[in-house]
């Protein structure tokens, strides 16, 4: 298939993971399955037009939504709110018409990179002094690319 699309987001933001079906014309949602997953976790699951969130990974509870008014036009994009650093990874969007066994299963992959904002000033005691000085002296926010963060936590950099 096509290479994965990459999405970037900052901690706490809402991100839209894009997924569109290629079927021509209107889709019949009452006979279709839409399955968003990340590795083995169920992120969002719609069966025959109904949200089935029973099997949803609890980490995603209340944080996912679809564009219901656009789904019959093939927009299966997933909105994920309050993004956390550990939401990073490869998400798979799988769509299939249930009634028509000849219809191919459509699958697309989206890589989500979440960057944490890290405050360089680790000494909280100095914060009160900093706020009274000019803003130029305030600690800068730096963005740490997630891949670096992961490599460090996994200890891969020892290799």
Automatic annotation (TrEMBL):
InterPro entries: Ig-like_dom (IPR007110), Ig-like_dom_sf (IPR036179), Ig-like_fold (IPR013783), Ig_sub (IPR003599), Ig_V-set (IPR013106), T-cell_Activation_Regulation (IPR051713)
UniProt record, GO biological process: cell surface receptor signaling pathway; cellular response to lipopolysaccharide; immune response; negative regulation of T cell proliferation; positive regulation of T cell proliferation; T cell costimulation
Recorded superkingdom: Eukaryota
PROSITE patterns, alphabetized: IG_LIKE (PS50835)
Membrane topology designation: Single-pass type I membrane protein
Keywords: Cell membrane, Disulfide bond, Glycoprotein, Immunoglobulin domain, Membrane, Receptor, Signal, Transmembrane, Transmembrane helix
Subcellular location field: Cell membrane
Limits of the Ig-like domain: 12-111
GO CC annotation: external side of plasma membrane
Pfam families, A to Z: V-set
Protein name: VTCN1 inhibitor
């Amino acid at each position: 298939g096509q290479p994965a699309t990459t999405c970037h987001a900052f901690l706490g933001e809402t991100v839209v993971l894009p997924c569109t079906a290629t079927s021509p014309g209107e889709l019949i949602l009452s006979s279709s399955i839409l399955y968003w997953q990340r590795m083995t976790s169920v992120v969002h699951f719609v069966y025959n037009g109904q949200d089935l969130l029973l099997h949803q990974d609890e980490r995603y509870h209340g944080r996912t939504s679809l564009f219901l008014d656009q789904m019959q036009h093939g927009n299966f994009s997933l909105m994920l709110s309050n993004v956390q650093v550990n939401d990073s990874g490869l998400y798979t969007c799988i769509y299939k018409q249930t009634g028509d066994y000849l219809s191919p299963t459509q699958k697309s992959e989206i890589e989500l990179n979440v960057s944490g904002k890290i405050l360089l000033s680790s000494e909280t005691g100095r914060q009160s002094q900093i706020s009274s000085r000019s803003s130029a002296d305030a600690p800068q926010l730096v963005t740490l690319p997630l891949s670096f963060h992961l490599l460090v936590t996994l200890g891969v950099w020892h290799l």
